[in-house]
Amino acid sequence: MIKLLIADDHTIVRKGLKQLIQTAKDMSVVDEASSASEAIDKIRQSRYDVIVTDITMPGMNGLDLLKILRKEKPDLPVLVLSMHPEEQYAVRCFKSGAAGYLTKDSAPNELIDAIRKANKGGKYVSVALAEKLALALDMDTDKMPHETLSDREFQVLKLIASGKTIKDIADEMNLSSKTVSTYRTRILEKTRMNSNSELTHYAIKNDLVI
Q1: pLDDT digit string (tens) for 25-63?
Q2: Residue 79: which of 42, 37, 123 has the closest Cα?
Q3: pTM of the model
Q4: What is the biggest distance separating any 2 CA atoms in the chain, rounded to whole angstroms?
């Protein structure tokens, strides 16, 4: 039986997670904590197989909890279940020693799978985050950022840098505005930039705009 402690400052969340987790016959929520400091106190006094914690809690947060447990209980797997999107905290959590990161809108079976994997010493990464990590690893560091773009993405980059709006680009390329917006999002991810102004500055600096 996998014994779990849930740390979350919302009672209704803890109760909901407990009810969900205990539908699995091989695991049981044996304790709860409403704060990271309370969780640490309980972990120091009792034995658990897996910890499920939120990041945002009053006082000490989930990242602080991870760092303390990494020193005191390095073999104790901690899963982070958060309302924050993966791109905001997932990498930080893994670097701090987390065994997995899930958002609170994840499918219930994902949490169950993550707990089982963490209990066996593995790391749980969602499909969406795995794709982002793979993209980052696949990027050739010898290439300029714009050289990682597809032909369509490169074309959109140049049009953005020339001052055209999403609608202008959609009309010119005979695409929907939604499709152009998707290209723009991919361009920002691949070039690791945050805005049209950054893209424009980069394009001008590298003579991509005629």
Answers
A1: 999 999 999 999 999 999 999 999 999 999 888 888 888
A2: 123
A3: 0.64
A4: 67
For domain 2-133, the question of CATH label 3.40.50.2300 is answered with yes
* CA–CA dist 117, 23 (Å, integer): 17
Q: Distance between CA 75 and CA 148 in Å, rounded?
A: 39
Which CATH number applies to 139-205: 1.10.760.10, 3.60.20.10, 1.10.10.10, 3.40.50.920? Answer: 1.10.10.10
Which residue reads 């840098």 in tokens?
Answer: 161
Please state the separation of Cα 70 from the chain's center in Å.
Answer: 20
Q: Which two tokens stand for residue 128?
A: 């969406």
Closest CA to 96 of 119, 66, 74: 66
Tokens of 54: 């939120």
Residue type, 37: S
